[in-house]
Amino acid sequence: MKPENILSRAARALMHGGIVALGLASIVGSGGGGAIGFPDTSCLNTPQGCLPPPPAQPTASVSPQRPIIQVGMPLHFDVITDVSAPSYQWCRQPSGTTVCTDIAGANGPGYTLAAANLGDDGAIFLVTVSGNNGVAKAGSFVAVSSMPGVVLTDTEFAAGVWSLTAVANPPLDGLSFSASRPVTGGNPGPYRLLSVDLPREVRTVTLLDTNAAAVYNPATQGAIYVIEFSLDCNNIAVARDPYYVNYWLPTLEQSGRRFLPDRNAGASCFSPGWNTRGWLGFEALGFKLVDGPACGAGEACPDFSATGLPIRLGLAYNVELRAVSLSASAPHFEQGFDNFKATVWRH
């Protein structure tokens, strides 16, 4: 055999062996990141296992969530949903019942109650949204009053009307905080400006600001059903520290005690500029004591009944340290508020 034929045959063998080797490598390496020569079994260690993930469930939400309305007034609901090709059915579940009865003709993304009555108080209006990607449900709880709300407002913040105090947790003497009344820059005109420096060792500081003119007396004006609050707030100077959060809450003062709702009700102003924030429907049980004498056993605290003492309303600004901060100095916070409004609703 000629030498060149031997070389040609050897070259062809090497080429064939390379192709086989490459094929083997591709087969061995096809385990998707597992050990060489073995399938990837890491998915067995996940809650889902090795099954494909389930499709995301569709969602829906109704607004307003907890509306308060006077007898005879209309009320409109809207639903927002990611259900594909949606169809709608609204129903009404009266207070104290578990059955939601379909409302005839209520088959759109919105529903209007033409005139609320006392029978609608405590009712839930629920919508079921069905489509190609599944079913979602959402509802709204309605409160109805037989009388108009008592509205208490302040847009001018005259000297001596507001009273500011601070509660620190853990307690701290000598805390640096203040309130002022810039005459311009509000929404519009004057506004109230609160500021606080939060030492690194303090977990939470709450500035409780109550209004001596925003007073409701249940003994002379009637028992309270729920209270709504709103304000315009402006994030003027807030420490850019990821370990701190800050937010607004409504507050009230009665018999030397100060009350706040749960922190989950907090409303934040994240950016400079005036933003409107509001809270719907706080009942007495929605508030907890944060400062002042302890509540006695069996005592209504706060007392919204017709024998309750006068209640002074206001706002609270809360700054909270979530973790150990690396800041070299005490962070400084300033937020302004304007157009304070509280509406007291009665049955």
Strand content: 35-45%
Helical proportion, percent range: under 10%
Which CATH C-level class of the largest domain is it?
Mainly Beta
Helix and strand element order = HEEEEEEEEEEEEEEHEEEEEEE
Measure the end-to-end span: 113 Å
Low-confidence stretches: 1-35
Number of DSSP E strands: 21
Strand and helix map with partners:
Blueprint (H helix, E strand, L loop, with lengths): L2 H26 L31 E4 L4 E3 L4 E7 L5 E7 L7 E2 L7 E4 L10 E8 L2 E8 L1 E3 L4 E5 L7 E8 L7 E4 L11 E6 L6 E13 L1 H4 L4 E13 L5 E11 L2 E5 L12 E9 L4 E5 L19 E11 L10 E14 L2
Describe it for me?
The protein has helices spanning 3-28, 218-221; strands at 60-63, 68-70, 75-81, 87-93, 101-102, 110-113, 124-131, 134-141, 143-145, 150-154, 162-169, 177-180, 192-197, 204-216, 226-238, 244-254, 257-261, 274-282, 287-291, 311-321, 332-345. The chain contains two helices and 21 strands. Strands 10, 12, 13, 15, 18 and 21 form a six-stranded antiparallel beta sheet that branches. Strand 7 and strand 8 (134-141) form a beta hairpin. The protein is mainly β.
Descriptive keywords:
six-stranded antiparallel β-sheet; Immunoglobulin-like; mainly beta; disordered N terminus; 347 residues; Jelly Rolls; 2 domains; globular
Short description:
Helices cover 9% and strands 43% of the residues.
